[in-house]
Design goal:
Length: 128
């Protein structure tokens, strides 16, 4: 969506939150921490303002059009997308431990192919 790899997932999470259907284990971090907060920072947006954009839209295409018109940050976009797809594969021992813990909690500790948080999320949500 508009060149931002995380935007479709974040828009889905916002729509779920607005409908009162966001899974409870996602609520603590919603728009405040994790990938949500990092995307907002890279895009230069405040959470509530962007949530209102999504609330005021009917389609994801409308949100994508709004982002294309209002978020002109190509360097931040490229850096964020690169960070996103590599997050967890870095040699940071704390980050590696957190990924291992998440895999263990989800019964995925045996999955050596899950080397990033994006991989983990896809597997945890049954897409991998």
């Amino acid at each position: 969506m508009s060149g931002w790899l995380y935007l479709p997932r974040f828009v889905d999470k916002i729509r779920l939150n607005l409908a009162g259907l966001l899974p409870s284990d996602y609520e603590a971090n919603f728009a405040k921490r994790g990938f949500d907060a990092q995307w907002l920072k890279a895009a230069g947006l405040e959470a509530e303002a962007f949530i209102e954009v999504v609330r005021g839209s009917v389609t994801d295409g409308q949100v994508a059009d709004w982002v294309r018109r209002n978020v002109q940050r190509p360097a931040e976009q490229a850096a964020f997308n690169q960070w996103l797809v590599q997050h967890g594969s870095e040699q940071d021992p704390d980050l590696r431990a957190r990924l291992a813990m998440r895999k263990e909690q989800s019964g995925l500790a045996h999955r050596n192919d899950l080397t990033t948080f994006v991989d983990y999320i896809d597997a945890d949500e049954k897409r991998l």
